Amino acid sequence: MMEKLDELDPEHAAAVSAEALDLMKELGIPLVPTNFTVWFVYVLGRSAGLRQTIDVLRSNHRRFDKATNQELYASFLASNTLAHAGQTVPEELSAILLNVRQDLSGAVADNRVHAEGLRAVEASLRPAGDPNLALARLSEQLAAATERASVLEAKLVNACSEVEKLRSDLDQAELRSKTDALTGLANRRALEAFIRAAQIRAMEQGEPLSAFIVDIDNFKTFNDKYGHQLGDQVLKVVSSCVREGVRDRDLASRYGGEELMCVLPGATIDVCRQVAERIRSRIAAAQITKRATGERIGQVTVSVGVAEFLPGESFEALFERCDRAMYRAKQDGRNRTVAL
After folding, report:
1. Which residue in 258, 259, 308, 316 is the catalytic one?
2. Active site includes 91?
3. Considering the entire predicted model, what is its pTM?
4. CA distance 52 to 67
5. What is the pLDDT of residue 84?
């Protein structure tokens, strides 16, 4: 865990601050609190993820503009990041751990009673008395100890089961937080995290990275004519075609509204365009009917914009180029794929 900033030695903190300020001046970064925090922690070197990201961006001559600095702060230092969230133990887990702690405390107390009972048996064996009585007492103590151990084992097994259930619930909650409820695709939050990691990997390994945006043609008119319920059905069908048309290593996401975005690590723009075109063709060939009446709906088409990641560019810049290509497809008549 990264050392708290207010626990740093004053002289060390001053030296780190001076180096951070020099770097910010050299790179033309505005001196505002969030920017200074990012570069202070970078120079401090206690956040491996932040340092790796900035090093890759610098090696690719990335300009640290306002958007880039805000993204760095939000990803690695903002209070709502996963690292901060991990410091909070869920109440359910706290309750389980408390029960386990109480059970173990009870077991310790029972062991003390058991030890005292055994000492009493030992004392009764010393005088020349009835050995059968001593053996009976010993048997009682061993039976009591066995019973206590069985009860404790059952409680611990139950606690382990509760922990496993809680872990499964947390995994499901994490998955839901990254999934669009309507389409089942990744949501915007998951998209931004995925593409950020893909950009870093592409720059580190010198591999291509491409993306494309899918936008349903005349979707507003379609909604107005048939209603939002059928509009949702269309969006699900299109999303299914998109998801089935990409590889397991790719990401298909719903960016917002009727716009979907796919990210293809390791794919050149030509490969990405071929994938996007296959998906477009499949959507155009899909038959959609109203579930309630069986009425067949006219052809649903999409316009697709494709772009390849340029080393050092931001997610916003890549999205904008995909978006421009998609609008070019609409201007050229819709139901087509355009790469820029």
Report:
1. 258
2. no
3. 0.61
4. 18
5. 40
